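queue> holo job accepted (manganese (II) ion)
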Amino acid sequence: MNQPILNHLPKNSLKDIPKDFPKFLCLPKEQCDPKTAMYQILPVPYEGTVCFLDGTAKGPAAILAVSDQMEHFDEELLIDFTQCGIAVLPPIPPADTPEEEFERIYSTVKQYDFFRAKRFPILLGGEHSITPPMVRAASEFCENLSVLQFDAHADLRESYTGGRYSHASAMRRVLDWTPHLVQVGIRSFSEEEYRDHPERIHRILTPKMLAEDPNDCFERILYCLTEHVYITIDIDVFDPALAPGTGTPEPGGLDWRQVTGLLRKVCAAKNVIGADLVETAPLGGHNVVTEFLAARLVSKIIAYTQDKSSY
Ligand SMILES: [Mn+2]
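queue> job finished
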């Protein structure tokens, strides 16, 4: 794990990290070298198509900043994060249009070549439209990739307010690259989304279904996923009481144990190749609840993908 495998780092990219941009967990320097670290956190502070509350562009820096207050140890699986290798890459500068942003993320991810280098990328958004270009790159490397989405919203519209690359069309664009999409925590979709994707209804697990029969839901998730899985988490999958700092808070969301419990089981049962966490919009002041939850979730993704024996 310590030999440099990332041979295709974008030119000069490592010099472009703003000096004050926070590290994850504030780990010692040798534990967060992008050339050798297993986990590669890529901040994508983009919010070009947000339609309600803004601020998610500030998400990545806020999540990393509060991670400084977390232990370097996973209390559940007893994993020492200082031994994991966790780097923060330079943030992708936001593009002027959604189409350019898609190309920018796609080409950056291709240059890093995470999957061939056997690195685990974690993208920090930013809005949900950052997911499709990542899925495109992953699906080109990994045949038969499936995507597990945690979200309040189905995001299956063909386009929204005129844009095919809107955050509200994120999962519709994911379907351009793989048909294997499982949607967890969904509690808001339009009549158009329901009508246009009748086959999806079997792959949508609502909070009510998860509360009534979590084991059956987990079996269905496993059945619908292929071996290689990319995970995308919209922070609004959580109940807004737990994660109020987000653009479109929907009542009736999942709790911490439901989300982390599912994540742990899926990471143990499947080959999870990468993840993203989107739509954290810091509220400011002393209300850091949402970014703290997001930072802990990043640490859980790292812990669960380290540990393959917990299923
Ligand atoms: Mn959402």
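queue> The mean pLDDT is 91.
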